[in-house]
Predict the structure of SKAP1 protein.
Amino acid sequence: LEEIPRPIQDSGNILKQGYLEKRSREPSFFGSEWHKRWCVLTQRNFFYYANEKSKQPKGSFPIEHYRARLASQLRKDSRKKCCFELLCPGKRSYEFTAPSPAEAEDWVEQIQFLLKDLSSLTIPCDEDEEEEEEEEELSKDLDSSDSMNNSHNSTLIQEEPSQELEGDDIYEVLPGELPNSQ
């Protein structure tokens, strides 16, 4: 069996993929042109291809430092609620139309979640979940500190008075051990 080649050249996992219309950079005589593109969002990059079976992307860019937002002003027709854009200061912006408003929202949410994750050392979560986790951790900390204090108190050992060390010996002589003769 022959394997179907995957169009993705990125080692990152695919987070979202699907057909979107991408606005061309140069407007034509008739105004802005929208081209159907197979788009793929990975953990580090955004790729767009001529179609689902294309091996080489028509374009790609690192997604980090971009921001995504819904942008109904991009179109005047019935698909205006399906539009979103990717913006980055000092770099090219990208404009897309999804098949439905819900799909546009999903693309924006996925990209925002990824960007939040890339800019943070911790995995982002909802504020409610965060508060619950903090409360759980606090109660765990209190429980463990109580048990540590109890176990620490019960295992206290009387220490012998420390002995003066001779010469350059930096090692402590433990009870029951003989110092090495040099």
Summary: The CA atoms of residues 29 and 89 lie 28 Å apart. The radius of gyration is 30 Å. The helical segments are 101-118, 127-154. Confidence is low (pLDDT under 50) at residues 1-8, 150-157.
